[in-house]
Amino acid sequence: GAGVSQSPRYKVAKRGQDVALRCDPISGHVSLFWYQQALGQGPEFLTYFQNEAQLDKSGLPSDRFFAERPEGSVSTLKIQRTQQEDSAVYLCASSLRSSGSRDTQYFGPGTRLTVL
Amino acid sequence: TQLLEQSPQFLSIQEGENLTVYCNSSSVFSSLQWYRQEPGEGPVLLVTVVTGGEVKKLKRLTFQFGDARKDSSLHITAAQPGDTGLYLCAGARYNTDKLIFGTGTRLQVFP
Predict the structure, then answer these.
(1) Rounded average pLDDT over B13-25
(2) Which residue in A35, A43, A100 is closest to B97 by CB distance?
(3) Ramachandran sector of residue A103 (left: φ over 0; alpha: ψ -120 to 50; beta: rest)
(4) Most CB atoms within 10 A, among A6, B48, B60, B96?
C-alpha cells in the first residue's frame, strides 16, 4: 500500500522488557514524526526526523526512549525497561517536505503498547 | 501538558442535529489543523487554516480560525452517523516543526 505502515499493531510487554516499534513512511517523504497517544486523549509529540537527522527530540519522556532513522526512510522507536505508564498508542506520521508542521502529515494506524 | 483545550470532551447527538466543537489556547499558532480519528486508525487531516479570521467549508463542516490565531471552531450541520469519531485540533507554533494536538472531542451520532 501507499500509506504509512506500522508494526507490530499490538504489543504486550512485561514491565522491564525492551520493545521496538517500526514505522515505514510513505516513500519519498522527508519528514517523520512519532507521537504518543494515551487512551481518550490527543496525540503528544515525541520526536521528529528530517531525512536521517533527528531535529527535535524534546517530547521524549525519558532517556529510556530512543528513536532512529538511519537511512532516512524506516524509523524505529525503542523503549527500554518499559513501565506501565508507557502503555499507549504510538503513532508515526510522515510528510513530503521539510516544513513538517505546515505540510500534511499522513498517519499510520499506530502500535498499541500494553505494559503489564 | 497540552496547550489546546477542546470542548466538549464528549458529544452524543441524533442524526440531523447541528453541533460545534471548540479548540482554545492562550498561545498563538501559525496555523491550525483539524483531524478526525476512527478507532484503530491514525488521525486523518480534514482542513488547515492559516489566516486569522479564516473560514473554510468542507461540505457540511465549517471551520473557523480565530482573529487572534489562538482558537478555532468546527461546526457540523445536519450530523450523520458517518461523522462519528474523535475530532482533534492541532496547532503549529512559529519556527517549530511539531504539531501540538488538542485534548480531543469524541462525537457519537445516532441514527
Answers:
(1) 97
(2) A100
(3) beta
(4) A6
